[in-house]
């Protein structure tokens, strides 16, 4: 069981997810434990950028915990209307639709696609969260890399589940 004591501010209530699209579910149990531990210290709203891979898998875990954790909420942050139609894998598109239907709130960044839309979505995630859970391999040229670097620059507590033993970085 994971416990976080003394490092998180009780007034900080929102956690964002970011991770690679090739995520295969390898850390789902760790992710579940971290979500529960953060909930136990006061985090109740989880923000998902709705990309295939880690993002949607994380959202599904939040939804699976809602019956156990009173007040747990999922906010889906959709980059643009029709985003699921751009997903090459139909399984991810179906999972996307199920998550959207079960979310507590859906925020759509833009009604149409533009070249900056994914960066804008990632900025929204960081700007509206007090902590970040990521699945980040260290690959610099990726949306996940951009989001993690931006969160760390803003001194947002970041938990990386990519390694065998997860890493926590605390700032502030």
- N-to-C order of helices and strands: EHEHEHEHEHEE
First and last CA, distance: 25 Å
Kindly state the number of beta strands.
Answer: 7
> What fraction of the residues are assigned to beta strands by DSSP?
15-25%
Which structural class best describes the helix and strand composition? alpha/beta
The dominant shape is globular
What can you see in these coordinates?
With 172 residues, the protein is α/β, with parallel strands linked by helices. Helix content is 35%, strand content 21%. It contains 5 helices and 7 strands, in the order βαβαβαβαβαββ. It has a 7-stranded mixed β-sheet, with helices on both faces. Helix 2 links the parallel strand 2 and strand 3. It is globular and about 40 Å long. The two termini are 25 Å apart.
Looking at this protein, list some descriptive labels.
21% strand, 7-stranded mixed sheet, alpha/beta, globular, 5 helices
Topology summary:
Elements: E1 14-19, H1 28-40, E2 45-48, H2 54-65, E3 73-80, H3 90-102, E4 105-110, H4 117-127, E5 131-135, H5 143-153, E6 157-160, E7 167-169
Parallel strand pairs: 1-2, 1-5, 2-3, 3-4, 5-6
Antiparallel strand pairs: 6-7
Short description:
This protein is an alpha/beta fold and 172 residues long. Helices cover 35% and strands 21% of the residues.
């Amino acid at each position: 069981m994971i416990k976080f004591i003394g490092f998180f501010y009780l007034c900080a209530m929102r956690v964002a997810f970011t991770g690679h699209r090739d995520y295969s579910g390898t850390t789902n149990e760790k992710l579940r434990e971290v979500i529960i531990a953060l909930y136990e210290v006061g985090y109740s709203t989880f923000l998902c950028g709705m990309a295939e891979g880690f993002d949607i898998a994380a959202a599904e875990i939040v939804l699976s915990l809602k019956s156990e954790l009173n007040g747990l909420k999922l906010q889906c942050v959709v980059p643009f209307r029709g985003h699921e139609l751009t997903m090459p894998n139909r399984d991810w598109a179906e999972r996307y639709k199920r998550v959207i239907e079960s979310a507590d709130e859906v925020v759509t960044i833009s009604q149409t696609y533009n070249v900056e839309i994914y960066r804008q979505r990632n900025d929204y995630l960081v700007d509206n969260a007090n902590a970040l859970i990521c699945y980040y391999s260290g690959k610099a040229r990726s949306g996940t890399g951009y989001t993690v670097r931006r969160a760390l620059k803003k001194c947002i507590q970041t938990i990386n589940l990519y390694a065998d033993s997860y890493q926590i970085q605390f700032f502030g």
